Amino acid sequence: MSTTRILDGGMSRELLRLGAELKQPEWSALALINSPEIVREVHKEFIAAGSEIITTNSYALVPFHIGEDRFQTEGAALIRLAGRLAREAADSVPGRKVLVAGSLPPIFGSYEPQNFQPERVQDYLKVLVENLAPFVDIWLGETLSLIAEGEAVRQAVAESGKPFWISFTLADDKADIESGEPKLRSGESVEDAASWAASSGAEAFLFNCSKPEVMEAAVATAAAAFRKMDAGIEIGVYANAFEGEQGESAANEGLHETRDDLNDDAYSRFACSWAEAGATIIGGCCGIGAAHIHRLGKTLRS
């Protein structure tokens, strides 16, 4: 566990805690528009909590959240701002090397694999990649619901010269948790996703924005698949703290409630189980704040 690398946590609730406005459909993009200094402060708080890798606040900078017109007129500038704020925060800490991961979200909506449009996806990913590239060390395709979204990210960053990581979101309704057979929200198996990752050139294969309860089985499945293929790919996890069923409404229609039972101690226990199953990159997603990251880092390194 001592070699585990620590990611940051979820941006949105930390923005709220520090006083930023947060509402749908713009979600965390609204802070870049109205209070970018708070975005920088959230990055700094995660670094102070022990994060070795922070993620640009570019997740909501897609038409799904900010609309097609705003994306076309303001998208590039907002994406550059997101990259710059993360880079400034990472470089502000003397004596520490903090990496910046460039968030490349699902272009057509979180948890919406049925909306994927292969003929249009590169038009939007190109804008994200071009404007984040000067600021990031790693590309992070995250909260992807189907393998085709991962392949789109691979294609988008192929000429960038920077490493890329791919993170899938898992089906996590009650029946999915009880089945013990991890799968992507598209229904594709984790084993098939791992097989694709092994051939893609990705340096890390992660799971995020799903309940903590589904993560250990996914890590174990991926680890077994990579051993079988003799693939040297790191595995990572950053779960969310959402309560209830996450597919009940579109991800740009409201704010999910977060769980009362998932405090920093409970989350760190989950983190230990992921590390024991084979994860070497661990952080948090929506609802997992700086306090959670501080605790899990101390626990994993103790």
How is this structure best described in words?
The protein has 302 residues and is α/β, with parallel strands linked by helices. The chain has a single domain, classed as TIM Barrel, CATH 3.20.20.330. The chain has helices at 11-17, 29-34, 36-49, 63-66, 68-91, 121-132, 147-157, 174-179, 190-200, 215-229, 264-277, 290-301, and strands spanning 5-6, 53-55, 99-104, 138-144, 164-168, 204-208, 234-239, 281-284. The longest helix has 24 residues, at 68-91. It is globular and about 45 Å long. It starts with a strand and ends with a helix.
SSE ordering: EHHHEHHEHEHEHHEHEHEH
Might you state the CATH topology name?
TIM Barrel
Average predicted local confidence, pLDDT: 95
User: How many helical stretches?
Assistant: 12
Helix/strand-derived category reads alpha/beta
Shape estimate: globular
**% residues in beta strands:** 5-15%
Strand order of the largest sheet: 1-8-7-6-5-4-3-2
Distance between the amino and carboxyl termini: 9 Å
Uncertain stretches: none
Give helix % range.
Answer: 40-55%
Query: Largest beta sheet, briefly?
Result: 8 strands, parallel
Number of strands: 8
CATH architecture: Alpha-Beta Barrel
CATH superfamily: Homocysteine-binding-like domain
Per CATH, the class reads Alpha Beta
Counted up, domains total: 1
Alpha carbon gyration radius: 17 Å
Protein name: Homocysteine S-methyltransferase family protein
Cofactor: Zn(2+)
InterPro entries: BHMT-like, HCY_dom, HCY_dom_sf
Keywords: Metal-binding, Methyltransferase, Plasmid, Transferase, Zinc
